[in-house]
Write a structure and sequence with these properties.
Blueprint lengths: L2 H17 L7 E3 L6 E7 L2 E8 L27 E8 L5 E8 L4 E9 L5 E7 L2 E9 L2
Antiparallel strand pairs: 1-2, 1-8, 2-3, 3-4, 4-5, 5-6, 6-7, 7-8
């Protein structure tokens, strides 16, 4: 019977260790499946830029819904859509914003790796948040 608690502890430590790793350098497929995002170190913060996909924002692949007319002709590929995040001791990422090219707005955001290996990404307005699940890109 002593093996069962030890096995439980070992399993818990292994699953916790898998969740307790930096996400910088990982690539994720968005919830819609229309693009991939690479999470990277940006100075002392963490960010994420579009690697592939034009998003549902438009067939042109341009940021045409941006509120700034000067930015409406920039391409979405290469654009940082996650910015200003700080990695927490539990390896969640908070304090940043996510840019949504579908409406041209930025939202308060946070993200974390879930036990199932997917990335939970939240975008919030005030106390209300919308959650998306991104999957690891192969």
């Amino acid at each position: 019977m002593k093996l069962t608690p030890a096995l439980f502890l070992a399993t818990t430590l292994i699953s916790t260790t898998a969740l307790a790793k930096p996400l910088e350098g990982t690539v994720w497929r968005t919830a819609s499946g229309s693009g991939t995002i690479k999470i990277e170190a940006c100075g002392g913060k963490t960010c994420g830029r579009i690697l592939t996909g034009a998003s549902k924002a438009g067939e042109t692949g341009l940021d045409f819904r941006n509120p700034s007319p000067a930015l409406r002709t920039r391409t979405l590929v290469g654009l940082n859509i996650l910015s200003g995040f700080t990695r927490q001791p539990d390896f969640s990422y908070k304090g940043g914003t996510i840019y949504n090219p579908e409406d041209g707005k930025s939202y308060r955001s946070e993200f974390k790796l879930k036990r199932d290996g997917n990335l939970e990404v939240k975008g919030c307005v005030g106390p209300f948040c919308q959650t998306q699940i991104w999957t690891a890109a192969q």
